[in-house]
Fold these 3 entries.
Entry 1:
Amino acid sequence: MLPLLSLLALAPPALAQAPAPSARDRADLQRVEAYLNGLTTLRARFIQIAQNGATAQGTALIWRPGRMRFDYDPPEPLLLIANAGQFLHYDKELRQPSIVPVGSTPLGILLRDRITLSGDVTVSAVQREQGLLRVTLYRTENPAEGRITLVFAQEPMELRQWLVVDGQGRTTRVTLSAIETGLRLNRAAFDFNDPRFMANPVDNN
């Protein structure tokens, strides 16, 4: 079984003070902000790779602000849902849920109503290579909660991957493919009052 909670990175190592961004960095960060704030719904296939090489795949849904869902393909019995300010990690085999606040995880930055990559969010690195833009960030007042690196295609800009680092320096990588945006999603797909819900998370009506 994959260490799913490491994807949320609850207690990473201390972070060095971030350098001041260059003019080019600031321009790229403005593009990232505009892209993320313009993103409402997203559906994609994902592949998750843990530090130990364990892999899993499934379908990811994002409905900004506030909602996210990861359905893992069998044999992984896992379900991850964000809604109402909480992340639910549910093991279907054990029928055991665990819940943490969205605001206590670096992944929660993606789900904010308005994403601003300054102030209470610190950008620690901006890197460019082979048409990709990598932005590493963490919550300014709570760096111990984790850091996340978002990876974007630059032309056109599109979220392709993220990496989260846990307290032991282990990295969990999530790569997206077959990305669709602007979909009409079923609100019930993000309701975790009953973990048995959701036959069809996309509403095509």
Entry 2:
Amino acid sequence: MQGTDLDLLIATAKASGEIARGFVDVAPKVWEKGGGAGPVTEADLAVNELMASDLQTARPDYGWLSEETEDDMARLERQRQFIVDPIDGTRAFIDGSRDWAHALAVLEDGLVTCAVVYLPMRDLMYTASHGGGAFLNGEPIKVSQKTDLDGATVLSNKASFADEIWAAGAPPIGVTRKFRSSLAYRLSLAAQGRFDAMMIIRPSWEWDIAAGALIVAEAGGDVTDQTGAPLRFNNPHPQVNGVVAGSPITSKLRDAFATSTVEARLPNT
């Protein structure tokens, strides 16, 4: 397949959407992965097969990291990698929600160079390339410019705003319970300015985060782990230390957050 890496990701996302939509009304088979890793459906596996074939055939020198493929540590020896989540938000997919996504990214030396988050049931195509801006269905998007935590809207889960895990109690955020199963979609909504920020305060898998992180950054947003450190990907253990992303309020969210109590008190996000 010819064209840029971003062209390749867009074409593969569209083809993945066609496959996934074919399972929407037929009650796909579902299995539990074990170890608390959650469910996987035959749709996830079918999309993963398509992505692996199309992307690796087009760029055979790139490494590969996918939620639905056994990790091959040879990826660490490659300069560039694909990192994908065939269906981000599998539980939403199983439940008949429209809020699941295909998340695809290309990495170079641990940094994301281009990314796509595609919601086929909503026909939403978020795209970004390093230095090239972020777009929704071809139109530029920008993060919110909110600077005050008071009344800010943050995408997370209810447990993330329990008073006991914040140094001085939960901040005065107006909407604290807005939730989307797909982390890639949460990041994209923050990039679009629909919400002022999103946050995840548990270690998070790279395939859930990489594509959306670039989209937020290219939309003018701030993206770090929960401590304020920059995100780097293609780690031997492919997780990052949570994510705080979006408008200028992100630094205030990080400052207000008491990290020492997280592991003891929070379920997986």
Entry 3:
Amino acid sequence: MTSLLFVNSLAGLLIFTSIIIIYTKKVKSAAIGYAIQSFVLVALFFSLADVMQAHELYVWSISAFFTKVVFVPALILYMVKKLPENDFSDGLNKAWLLPILPIVMLVSHLIVEPINLTVVENLKPALAVSFAHFFLGLLCIASQRHILKQVFGYCLMENGAHLSLALLANNAPKLVEIGISTDAIFAMIIMVVLVNKIYHKINSLDSKDLSELKG
């Protein structure tokens, strides 16, 4: 039987993969990092299904594997082949990210500590990780100038939302999981199409070039 320690350890591994996604300069590396993170999330869903006796999470893990581990990274990698990997500095000095990350984890811990729900009584570290991903997603968007790298900020936030739902509403109907997966897929398709149009319009993937409106 899966232990609670193992589940919380997998959640901690999600934070490590998020750091890789934010810190890496190349979009291809970030896509691979996201695929690894999503695989850890799938393993987390599978483990939670055993720990919480929530058989719906087995279906969630299968759905997340095809959408997050396979489809989204493949879509990003396909776009990388069509668009250049521009070499420019990040918007935020990476030295500032080191003190920010512990603050994010501390704030997330303080948010979940007062929560008194039996369903997550022994899984508060995992719940704190799910909240941390909202802040890490915002941090990814703010710290990157490459537009495709900013898209990963949304991906981190979506993974955090997915984990929160798995912890707090794991008995939700399968239709909810289908809706989440469908929304994520269509959101990624729309964002990738927009990135492609932006590049062909201004011949740049640097968000700094979008800072001024041109009539």
